[in-house]
Structures are given as structure tokens and as C-alpha cells.
């Protein structure tokens, strides 16, 4: 039996990822309702909104209103996404979020061009600019992320050496600015990973940088999300992004079925069943997943919300035995 | 990196499992169309129909017609399901199948009562009767299966010792009848397994019975199917039941979302991407999965049919680079 972590931390991205991609307009009140419901599940990190250009992402034209509307629950860290200085300034202005600075590199230049219209070099320079902006605003920077770390629809497979080279750039950039990176998130942005790829890339990065804590951002487009998370657990990874009910997806990934992140309640189910503590109340989370389906008005991909919580079945079985 | 098998054998159960559970009537011609399409994918084992009471399973009232209608492809073994002597006689009468004898025990008595209206003891006796019937008809018996081997909606978790005890009964019964069991299939009939349960049960059975080859039958009701298959691969299991597009499900499992077997094309995708040979042409299999959706007239759960085949993306990337 591998040495699985005793507990994991989940960064819930359902609201931010989900409402970004939904076609139908969703009211501000219902977006707030989902965040408030998530706040009561035991999740400790909730990414709420995206401060992006409403022309490109009309689903987040009401980011400010949503930010002011949800009720903060003690012990929960609320975060948000931005892609440039304008977005960051909007995020700060709300005074509602834990603003955490991060260096964000992308392993695939072609994807970066399509996604953010930048070359690798331009992005490196831009990240330097973001770091200066974080510092000017007194924001701590101890995280980094690498998009397309397991493969790219436009460039193909990612050789281990290339990812190690890109990760080295992250640490170079951090050193240039006197930063210490504590968490490095590897993102399977276009769902190229299998458990073997997870083990190859995570293993290589961990061997080279044993002191940085690794996180995984896994898309489920090809149905590998939970298996990839399991491979991550086997490698000792203890931080995962996830989306309740499997909300969301990447609008730039060039195919129709760009499924979202790995589903939070399915991940919680797997972990809790295997004795890995998530801190989450699965019953409340399943209720929230069903709420998410009601809000978007169509079925969402998560399985446990329909398949059922074994903890509840066990109670029913015990009650029947006692009767 | 674990020692994964170099190749696996897939027993395709989509037609049999799928058409058993679909609500709408599906024409005999379209059932045959699916089997004929599967025959050209490289799959070497296809379970086609179920010879059961048409009053209980109206979807298989045309089992004889389907059996006579599909075109046999060289090198493919066509099989079918029966639950009693009457079904077996119907199967033999078609002269279309590789009739393979099997001992079928169930770890949960409550499930057995609901599913086949038998106690464990009655089933043990009934299996003895089936063995005699196989022998009278010159049918080789070298396989066994254990339903509910990882947990049960009516009895709960399955302690390792209990499964080992049930497996011991399989071998006792085989010894009584001078049979050698070569393959033992462990079925997660009600989707209670996580990768940890797979490793616990498979590991214990393998340690106790190192000479029998293990197979896995994995339901995906709680989204763990592919992760459980990966855990099986890590344990060296090289035989898997699967259903194209994720067709099917168990009508007796007492909840709405009784998803079917692990999806064949998602399993093939994971294996081929990890260098494990399946013998299957994933392009043709994805076409067949899309055909299956057309036949049943509603979305089916498989992911790769929508998410896309990376082998095709790699070719497009190479072509774009060469241009």
C-alpha cells in the first residue's frame, strides 16, 4: 500500500470556473447562494469570482456584486482570480478577499498565445511586472503555478526536461525578486494526463525541488480526473483544486467537451473512504452539488451526487439491522 | 513506478448490460448494428445478449433474434449471459456463442436474495447443479466470479476475511467437481470500491491464491471506475469487464443512478496512453461509442468520446508543424 497523505486541502473553484463558462445568464443572487452554501460544507478555500474583461467573459460582469454579496464564514479563505493589473486592482478594491500573489507560467507557448496572447518571454516579463505590483500593494507572494504541465492540445506531450526547465524559471524569477515559493501548482489544463504522466512529472519535480509543496489542478475532459488525483495522492500530493459537481471548464481549450476540474464531492468521497481527511462534510457538499445543478439548469458531471454517499448507506444498514 | 501489466484483455459487456437497462424499446436491427461495430474495433471478447426471463427483462425478449443477426468476426469470442438452466439451454440452442462455464457466488446474501431470490446456501447448491449441467453439455468450466466483493448497499462493507472465506468456497466447490479455476472475477456490483478497497481485496485474494488469474468488474456509480481500474493495474490485474460508452447498469441496485461498468473507451485510452496494450483501435471504438449514444437516444457517461483521442490530436499537431 502506498504512503497516502493523512489529509488533503481542497481549493474549491466551482463558482469561479463554473459561472465563467455557463451559457445562460445566471443571476447574481444565485451565484451568491452557491458560495454561501459552499461556505457551510467545511471547505476552507473557496475561489469565488474572476475579475476579467466582461467583454470576453460576460458571466463575470457582476464579479463586484457577487463579491459584496456572499456571507463570510469564519475559518474560510475566500479568493478570486485575475489575469492582469486591472483585474488585481478590482479584486483589491472589493476588500473581500485573501489576495495571494502567485507567479503563473505556462509550459506551452502556443496555448499561452491563444489564452493570453503572450509569448513565453512576454509572459516571463509580465510576471515580473505582476510581482512588482503585488509588492507595491503589500501582497505576499509564495505560490506559483504551471499551466499545461502535462500536455497541450496545440503542442502535444510535455517532456519531463521541459517541465523541469520551466519550473527552474519559476524559481529563477522568484530569486530575482527575493521570493520564497512554498507551493507549486501543476495544472493539467487540457486534460492530457494519465496516472503515469502524473507520476512522471510530479516525481521529477519533487525530486528536483523537495522543499516546495506540490498542488494539482486536474481537468476531467477525458475522464481521468479522479484516477489522476489518486496517482497524485500516491505521490504524496496533498493540495487539489476541484469544482463542486464538476462545474466549469476552459473556454479556450478548442474542443466542445472541455469538462471542468475534477469534481469536489467525488474527490472528497474517494479520500474520506480511504481514510484521508478532507475536513469536508460530504452530505452538505452533495446538497451543494445538487444546488449547483439547479442553478445552472442542466446536469453536471459529478457522480457521487447521484450515486450516493456510502456513509449514509452505512447508517441506513445499521438502522435496519438494529430494527 | 508500479509494475503495470504489459497488456490487458477487455471483456466488452456494453450490448448485454446496456440493452438490459434501457427504458425505450430498441430495435433488434440496432442492437445487431452495435455488436457488428464492436466486432471491428479489435475487442476480442464481446458479451452480446442475456438469456433471461423476458417478463423481468423485456429489453432482451429478442435475444435469439439478435444472436442470429450479428456477423461473426474472425478472432472474436462472442459470449452471452444466463442465470439458470433454462437460459443456458437457450444460449446453447443458438449455436452462436463460446459457452464458457463459470461458478458464480455472491458475497452478500441480502443482495443475492434481492437479485436472484436465493440464500447463500441455496446458491451454493444451485451452482453445483449448474456445474453438472455444464458437464452434461460438454462445457468447460474454468472461471468463477464473486459479486458484491467490495461492498453491498444492503450489507455494507466487506471484511477481507469474509471475501477470502467466500473465495475458499469457490475453490471447494471446484474441487468437489474436479474443476480447475483459472480466472476469478471480483465484481464491484454496487460501486463500493475505492482504489484502497481494490488493493486490499485484490491483494488478499492474490496472496492466498497466487495461481488464479484475477479479473475485475467495476461499476462507475460513484465515479471511481477508472481510478479503481488503475488500482487494479497497479496490482497486476490484466482482465477487465467494460462497457462501450459506459452503457448499462444494474436494475437491482436500489438507486436511480446505478451507472454501468467502467467505460471501455476511457479504459482503453488510459491503458494505451500508459503504454499498456489493449489490442483495440481507439478511433473505431470512439465511433462505436458515438453510435451507442445514437442507438439509445440519450447521452452516455463515457468521457473520451467527447473529450477526444490524444493520438488524433498528436497527428494534427505533427501535420500543423510539418505544414
Which secondary structure elements does this structure contain, and how are they paired or packed?
Two copies of one chain form a homodimer.
Chain A: E1 9-12, H1 14-21, H2 28-39, E2 45-51, H3 63-69, E3 77-82, H4 85-94, E4 101-106, H5 109-116, H6 120-136, E5 141-147, H7 160-176, E6 183-188, H8 195-208, E7 213-218, H9 225-234, E8 239-242, H10 264-273, H11 282-296, H12 304-307, H13 310-322
Parallel strand pairs in A: 1-2, 1-8, 2-3, 4-5, 5-6, 6-7, 7-8
Helix pairs in contact in A: 2-3, 2-11, 7-8, 8-9, 10-11
Short description:
Two copies of one chain form a homodimer. Chain A has one domain (9-322): Aldolase class I (TIM Barrel, Alpha-Beta Barrel).
Structure description:
Helices cover 45% and strands 14% of the residues of chain A. By secondary structure, the first copy, chain A, is of the alpha/beta class. Chain A has one domain (9-322): Aldolase class I (TIM Barrel, Alpha-Beta Barrel). The two termini of chain A are 37 Å apart.
For the record, the CATH class of chain A is Alpha Beta
Q: What gyration radius of chain A follows from the Cα positions, in whole Å? A: 19 Å
What is the total tally of β strands of chain A? 8
The largest chain-to-chain contact, stated as pair and per-chain residue counts, equals: A-B, 48 and 48 residues
Query: How do the strands line up in the largest sheet of chain A?
Result: 3-2-1-8-7-6-5-4
Q: How far from one another are the termini of chain A?
A: 37 Å
- Give the CATH superfamily of chain A: Aldolase class I
H/E element string of chain A?
A: EHHEHEHEHHEHEHEHEHHHH
Question: What do we call the CATH topology of chain A?
Answer: TIM Barrel
Structural class label of chain A: alpha/beta
Helix content of chain A: 40-55%
State the low-pLDDT regions of chain A, or none.
Answer: 250-256
Give the overall average pLDDT of chain A: 93
Amino acid at each position: 500500500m502506498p504512503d497516502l497523505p493523512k489529509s488533503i486541502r481542497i481549493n474549491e473553484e466551482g463558482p469561479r470556473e463554473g459561472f465563467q463558462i455557463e451559457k445562460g445568464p445566471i443571476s447574481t443572487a444565485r451565484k451568491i447562494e452557491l458560495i454561501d452554501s459552499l461556505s457551510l460544507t467545511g471547505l476552507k478555500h473557496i475561489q469565488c469570482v474572476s475579475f476579467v474583461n466582461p467583454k470576453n467573459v460576460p458571466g463575470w460582469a457582476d464579479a463586484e456584486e457577487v463579491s459584496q454579496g456572499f456571507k463570510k464564514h469564519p475559518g474560510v479563505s475566500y479568493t478570486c482570480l485575475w489575469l492582469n493589473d486591472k483585474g488585481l486592482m478590482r479584486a483589491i478594491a472589493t476588500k473581500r478577499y485573501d489576495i495571494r500573489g502567485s507567479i503563473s507560467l505556462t509550459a506551452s507557448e502556443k496555448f499561452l498565445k491563444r489564452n493570453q496572447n503572450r509569448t513565453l518571454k512576454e509572459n516571463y516579463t509580465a510576471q515580473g511586472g505582476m510581482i512588482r505590483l503585488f509588492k507595491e500593494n503589500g501582497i505576499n507572494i509564495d505560490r506559483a503555478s504551471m499551466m499545461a504541465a502535462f500536455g497541450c492540445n496545440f503542442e502535444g506531450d510535455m517532456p519531463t526536461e521541459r517541465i523541469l526547465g520551466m519550473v527552474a524559471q519559476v524559481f529563477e524569477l522568484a530569486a530575482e525578486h527575493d521570493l520564497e515559493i512554498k507551493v507549486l501548482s501543476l495544472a493539467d489544463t487540457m486534460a492530457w494526463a494519465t496516472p503515469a504522466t502524473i507520476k512522471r512529472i510530479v516525481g521529477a519535480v519533487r525530486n528536483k525541488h523537495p522543499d516546495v509543496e506540490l498542488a494539482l489542478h486536474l481537468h476531467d475532459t477525458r475522464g481521468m480526473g479522479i484516477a489522476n488525483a489518486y496517482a497524485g495522492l500516491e505521490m504524496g500530493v496533498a493540495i487539489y483544486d476541484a469544482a463542486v459537481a464538476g462545474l466549469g471548464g476552459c473556454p479556450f481549450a478548442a474542443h466542445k467537451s472541455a469538462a471542468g476540474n475534477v469534481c469536489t464531492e467525488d474527490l472528497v468521497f474517494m479520500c474520506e473512504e480511504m481514510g484521508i481527511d478532507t475536513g469536508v462534510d460530504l452530505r452538505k457538499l452533495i446538497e451543494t452539488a445538487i444546488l449547483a445543478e439547479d442553478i445552472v439548469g442542466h446536469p453536471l458531471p459529478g457522480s457521487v451526487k447521484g450515486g450516493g454517499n456510502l456513509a449514509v448507506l452505512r447508517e441506513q444498514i445499521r438502522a435496519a439491522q438494529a430494527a
